[in-house]
Amino acid sequence: MPYYQTWEEFSRAAEKLYLTDPMKVRVVLKYRHCDGNLCIKVTDNAVCLQYKTDQAQDVKKIEKLHGKLMRLMVSKETHSGSMDTD
Amino acid sequence: MVLLENDSFLTELTRLFQKCRSSGSVVITLKKYDGRTKPTPRKGNPDTFEPSDNKCLIRASEGKKKISTVVNTKEVIKFQMAYSNLLRAHMDGLKKKDKKSKSKKTKAT
After folding, report:
1. Hey, is the C-beta of B20 within 8 angstroms of any chain A C-beta?
2. B40 at the A interface (CB within 8 A)?
3. Domain residue extents for chain A
4. Residues in domain SRP9 (chain A) (predicted)?
5. CATH number of A7-67, picked from 3.40.50.720, 3.30.365.10, 3.30.70.1140, 3.30.720.10
6. Got the DSSP string for A38-52?
């Protein structure tokens, strides 16, 4: 279960994994104030992507990704069967 | 596991964060939800359930206490704003990076 070293790579891999199977993927966020770190995990129970940080600047990035995935989940996806105008 | 309304969930989540400031972790899970309230029927039995596509499930826990809420498309904008503010306000125990400070520049007298 590798921890990604860069946010960019993690973010791209996470979105890609979600789009392969939205119903299977879950996002887990673990915050420890006493240790001052934050860990995010995206998994479909086969592949597991993780990112860990203790930097305040990453909080915003993580929270943005979280929001993005949330919005993807509630949007009615009509992809894969693109809108054919007949 | 307590299922709450979006607003109550946010209130309780604030409490979870406050409780865990001195020790412990807050775990938040986010997953797409299709609205099932009954288990999937066995083979041979008809699955009379219509999955909906516009919901997600959010769970939070501090080890012992567990809370959850369902967010759908109509509520997501409002919820996401409040939720982002909450996260940013509470996840403030992390290190601030200021390597840029030219600390070598002490006032030379």
Report:
1. yes
2. no
3. 7-67
4. 5-73
5. 3.30.720.10
6. EEEEEE-SS-EEEEE
Contact check, Cβ <8 Å, B73/A74: yes
Would you call B87 and A63 a contact, using CB atoms and an 8 Å cutoff? yes
**Are A55 and B32 in contact (CB < 8 Å)?**
no
Which ipTM was obtained for this model?
0.86
DSSP for B43-82, written as a single string: TTS-------SSEEEEEEESSS-EEEEEEEHHHHHHHHHH
| Residues 6+ positions from A24 with CB-CB distance below 8 Å | A44, A45
| Residues on chain B touching A58 (C-beta within 8 angstroms) | 94
Domains and CATH numbers, chain B: 2-36+51-82 (3.30.720.10)
**Cβ–Cβ of A74/B55 closer than 8 Å?**
yes
B52-100 pLDDT, tens digit per residue, is 889 999 999 998 999 999 999 999 999 999 999 999 999 888 998 777 6
Render pLDDT for A20-79 as a digit per residue (tens, 0 to 9). 999 999 999 999 999 999 999 999 999 999 999 999 999 999 999 999 999 999 987 654
Q: From the list B26, B58, B73, which residue is nearest A31 (CB)?
A: B26
pTM of the model: 0.85
